[in-house]
Amino acid sequence: MPKQSKQARKWVYGGASVALSLAVLGGCASAPSGNTQANTGSAKTVAPQRGGTLRMIMEDHTDNIGFPALSPQLDYYYSSPALETLGRYNAKGIMEPFLAKGWKVDPKAKTITFYLRKGVKFQDGTDFDAEALKWNIQQFQNAHRPEVDGIKSMQVVDKYTLKLNLVKFDNQLLESICWFVQIISPTAVKKHGIDWAKTHPVGTGPFTFVAWNPDVSIIYKRNPNYWQKGKPYLDEIDLDLIYDANTAYNTFISGGADVLTRASTANTKQLEASGQYKFNTTRKIAFGAAGYGFMFPSANPKDPLSNLKVREAVEYAINKNAIIKSVLHGYGEATNQWYTPRSPFYNPAVKGFPYNPAKAKQLLKEAGYPNGFQTQIWTDAADQDMVTAVQNYLAQVGIKVKINVVDIAKLIAITSSSAPKWTGMTVYIWPTFPNAPVLIDRNFSPHAAYFAQNILHPPILQQLIAKARSAPDHQTEVKYVQQIQKVLFQDYALVLPMYITAGDVFMKKNVQNLGMFTTNGFDWNPESVWLSK
Amino acid sequence: MTTMLLRRLVQAVIVLFIVTVIVFLIMHLIPGDPAQIMLGSTATQEQIDALRHQMGLDKPLVVQYFLWLGNVLHGNLGTSIFYNQPVTQLLAVRLPITLQLGLYSLVVSLILGIPAGIIAAVKRGTFIDSIVIFLSNAGVAIPVFWLAILGVYVFSLKLGWLPVQGWVSPFENFGEGVRYLVMPVLVLATLPLSSFARQTRSSMLEVIRQDYIRTARAKGLKENVVILRHALRNALIPVITLLGISLAGIIGGAVLVEQVFNIPGMGRLLVQAILGKDYILVQGSVLIIGAIVVLINLATDIAYTYVDPRIKG
Fold first, then answer.
1. Would the pTM of this model clear 0.90, i.e. be above it?
2. Ordered strands of the A333-334 beta sheet
3. What was the ipTM of the complex prediction?
4. CB nearest B41 (choices: A11, A198, A414)
5. DSSP 8-state code for residue A516
6. What radius of gyration, in Å, describes the C-alpha atoms of chain A?
7. Nearest-CA residue of chain B relative to A240?
8. Tens of pLDDT along A468-504?
């Protein structure tokens, strides 16, 4: 796929901020399935070896690596060596305890109780306990972060137990806290201040922060007092911050780094073809890829696209597989919904609108547009080729499209909920992360900051989202999300889903257990990485 | 001389003022709301409005401009939206890197370009002259970014002599610093070097045909003395004009070179600021770049007066 701009992703992703940054990392390239050689499991039979420095090329441009509550665009990977979370998603998209020993969710009592792991210390020597967790959540509340909305009060039951009393039960709150609230040392922040904390992450992680040279590198060294005995295996992790994708690629192939976390499509193909490197890919896992498509102005009565039959006609008119093959060189996965078939949220009942130009023409006729109509597509330069292909397909059924290539700032201005209603379609990108109800709600709620003024809000959709958020268990949540997808993509065709891309992380063959893109597209387990001699 | 200097200073202030107005207007009139960009898609309208108020974006544009200008006159360039640090603090770290890069490039281009031009002029019509003309024409024609990519391909990927990217200060580690500097400095120096060589050759050819040069030779002065003492000084006047222009060009070229070679200088900071619509940082950076260019032009004017006494007064 064409390299997408980071800003673009930040704009369109419905997910929360961490997801945005990580999706950037994961969204740079993808490839056809069946041609991969991911390294998952390759190191399981060999005992980990100690020592060494892991040099990783990361995307540039981060401003805050140590105070998560005040970083709308916090880049998870930059701070992961030092900061940890209460839980981690598994490959099925289910949150599992990590810094927390466990939790109890009581929908009826509207409480969530966290039971914390004992003996965990921050890198400054202080204890990680219930008071520390409470303080961390409070920082998110003070910053008015939506991830912790709905907490009425917090009660320290004992040193290692924290109970949250909720305004109303929301199953997404547990995941949000477990995922977004990277735990930092209250003592360090109180001693040095928030500004200092932004550039000095002090957490419970396997590596302690050494130095951050903005736009150059972030360096971590082994934490000898890490709570998982025997870990980490590496002595040091150096994150080299390189903005330009070609520079990053050249640095990697010249031996300047062990891991490349981003590559253009062309570079991805070359790296794969060379056979010299291992790679992990989200193409084989359920979560973490990015979906690409178009948002219809379904609530703009002046636009023909507000007519459901017209929207369906547009969908029938486009041959997604051909576009993926020709424009994306096969690096994409055609989709008719939010998630890939590998995800539990995937709904096989959503049939979509397979390529059928005759059907498209018939629907246009039924909708009162037998000779088609004129419309426009708003896109940024990164997606121009894909949009041009779509333009050609639509022309074949009589829909004349004017392409408006604008910068990301203009796209933001157009789709902001406070802006006037736009006409035509806009490129829309979404993350396929496990916290589906939150992601969908943030873009399809009547109160969303983007798109809200110009898309329909069917009551059934809002009801299903509410049910998904209040589902008492994962299975029920999955059931509702599947229904949401049917309403969103099939019954109302509010979004035209084109394809799902993926992320690839390349590494030298001596890098073992990297842990990126093995369970989902955003987790990383730096404590488990090791270098074979 | 004093009148000329005062006149130039007043002009410089006016130019800087116009630069601030243009930059301010461009950053505020192009679409996009910094508050929305900062908060991302997770934000509610209330959060966006609150941040707009906090940043003063809800005030009339003229008020915003004069508030900013007032702060600038007090030495406060504002706080970067993205980095959340004072712009002066950011520039204090980044500017020296860009200036170093520019200075080294300028020195290289002068050291190589002027002698090349002199030799080509003195050896006019010879093979050496042809080589200098060819290389200098190529140096002017080849885009900086292409040269950078070619350099990386040859010297880093194929030969493995130089690093692909990065920055090590030569003041901290001289050997490593030089290794990291070689390619960006040479790439950045190519255009001014070529221009200096072409201009020096052209000026020298004109000057060495003058009567006073013939007289100097007739007096029996050595050729080196004739060329370096009598011809070169007059031939350098147009080169000094070019020097001013080249310095401004080097600062501009540094933006590209810093991007390609991943050098954490001011150019790269500016690009990041533009991409992130960090208009406060863009305004501050452009103001400083504008001030540097204006100062360079002022210095060029002053240099004229020393090289060409006719300009004095």
1. no
2. A333-334, A495-500, A290-295, A425-431, A373-379, A399-405
3. 0.73
4. A11
5. S
6. 23
7. B166
8. 998 988 899 999 999 999 999 999 999 999 999 877 8
